[in-house]
Amino acid sequence: MLVLLTPNKIMSDFENPLESKASINDAGEMEVTIAKKYNDSEAKVYKSYMSMCSSEDKMFTDTASMDDKKTYAACSVAYDKMRAMMMDDSKGELTEKQKKLPPALQKKIIEKMKKEGTYKEEE
Question: How far apart are CA 44 and CA 63, in angstroms?
């Protein structure tokens, strides 16, 4: 995945990254597909995470001495490491690890669960 940041890029304006895949079909032709990496509901969690990660130097990874491009890369790697934990909706509620995340990120995870119909409303 290659994402270029322009010098005027606002670090809180994160887009769903694109992912490309190349394959050779049965006729021997190369096929290349380019698509958004995350579905719409996960994209909101990703954007919230990236915004917090880039604005708080030590929230998820230490980005204090990094420029915007390195911060984006470090936060992306940290997101990929935490992705499975953040996307876990098997219980229909926040897991204990998700409850330790910042409230704004918890809210986006709950919104994702509600959108996908996996969130259990408290009785």
Answer: 22
> Among residues 50, 19, 46, 44, which one has the least CA distance to residue 34?
19
Place of tokens 């998700």: 98
**Per-domain residue ranges of the chain:** 39-116
pLDDT tier for residue 16 given thresholds of 50, 70 and 90? confident
Query: Sign of the C-alpha dihedral, residues 83, 47, 17, 6?
Result: negative
pLDDT tens-digit profile of 53-78?
Answer: 988 888 899 999 999 899 999 999 99
Cα distances from 16 to residues 23, 81, 87, 91, in angstroms, run: 23, 17, 16, 26
